[in-house]
């Protein structure tokens, strides 16, 4: 009886660790910091606005390439965005957000993304999703791009 309880307990602990790790919840801040780099994160929503992007060649996204340390690159429907960033564990902040100067008919998503970046103070990775926060308020959600893409050199 005691052996079966121990086996059941061990199975439960292993299962819980697997679930937490696969969701990103069990990852250390350092592991999450490493995961955010050199990925293209596709925009799901920002400030409650769902991404309705249908451009598969140039999707709305953000990247933090290690080849250009401290510089984030993004796109949100109209202009290329760039920003300086600092990351330490799960603390993340963006500054000096700049955009190319194209004017488009619909720029609400882009303006919301710029504001979210400027307000971000931390992030979390869960279920292959990058979530940006200001305090406890979720500002934006991105999905990890599983397709092929190239990073800036």
Characterize the structure shown:
- With 153 residues, the chain is α+β, with helices and mostly antiparallel strands.
- The protein is built from 3 helices and 9 strands.
- It has helices at residues 2-23, 29-36, 108-119, and strands spanning 40-46, 49-50, 61-63, 71-75, 80-88, 91-99, 122-126, 129-134, 137-144.
- Strands 1, 2, 3, 4, 5, 6, 7, 8 and 9 form a 9-stranded antiparallel sheet that branches.
- Strand 3 and strand 4 form a beta hairpin.
- The radius of gyration is 18 Å and the shape is globular.
Task: Provide the fold topology.
Blueprint: H1 2-23, H2 29-36, E1 40-46, E2 49-50, E3 61-63, E4 71-75, E5 80-88, E6 91-99, H3 108-119, E7 122-126, E8 129-134, E9 137-144
Antiparallel strand pairs: 1-2, 1-3, 1-9, 3-4, 4-5, 5-6, 7-8, 8-9
């Amino acid at each position: 009886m005691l052996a079966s309880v121990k086996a059941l307990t061990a199975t439960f602990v292993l299962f819980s660790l697997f679930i937490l790790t696969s969701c990103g919840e069990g990852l250390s801040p350092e592991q999450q910091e490493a995961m955010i780099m050199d990925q293209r994160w596709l925009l799901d929503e920002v400030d409650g606005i769902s991404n309705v992007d249908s451009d598969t060649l140039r999707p709305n996204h953000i990247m933090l390439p290690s080849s250009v340390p401290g510089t984030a690159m993004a796109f949100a429907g109209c202009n290329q965005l760039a920003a300086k960033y600092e990351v330490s564990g799960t603390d993340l902040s963006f500054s000096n957000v700049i955009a190319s100067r194209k004017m488009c008919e619909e720029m609400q998503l882009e303006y919301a993304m710029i504001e979210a970046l400027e307000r971000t103070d931390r992030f979390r990775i869960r279920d292959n999703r990058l979530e940006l926060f200001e305090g406890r308020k979720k500002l934006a959600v991105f999905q990890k791009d599983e397709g092929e893409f190239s990073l800036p050199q």
